[in-house]
Amino acid sequence: MATTEGSETLDASAVSRLGLNPGMVVQEFGFDADVCEALREGIEAVTGEKLVDEDFGDVTDSAIVWFRDGDDDLADLLMDVQSLLDSGSQVLLLTPKAGRTGHVPPHTVQEGASLGGMHATSTFVVDADWAATVLVEKGRSK
Questions:
Q1: Per-residue pLDDT, 66
Q2: Per the structure, how many domains does the chain have?
C-alpha cells in the first residue's frame, strides 16, 4: 500500500482491478489538486506510460475521470471520453466518497452513465477520499 500527500492509503487492489497492461495509454479527465496521486502513480507503474491529459488527440486504451458535484454534465463528459477510447475500453469514474466535499450520489452516477451510453460493472473504494465505478459501453460487461 502506498501513501501520498493529500490522500490516505491506497487500497492495494485498486490498480489491479483496472485490467491494465504494460504499454497501455490511459487518458485522464478532471485532474485537480485533490486527486489520489497514489492511484495515478500505480497506473503509470503498471502501464509504464505517463497518463495523458484531456487534450491528447489519439485513441487511448482506457480512461480515468475525476468527477465532483458541481462539475459539468456527467453524461456529456462521458460521451466526450468515449470518443477517443479504443472500442471496448473501460472508463474508471472516480467520485468523492460520501461525506467528502464534492460527493456525487450514486443515482447521479447511474443516470449520467446511462445517458452517456455506459453502465457500471463494479464499484470499489480507492482510498479514504475517492470511490471508483468501472464503466463500460452498454451491451458489454466485464
A1: 98
A2: 1
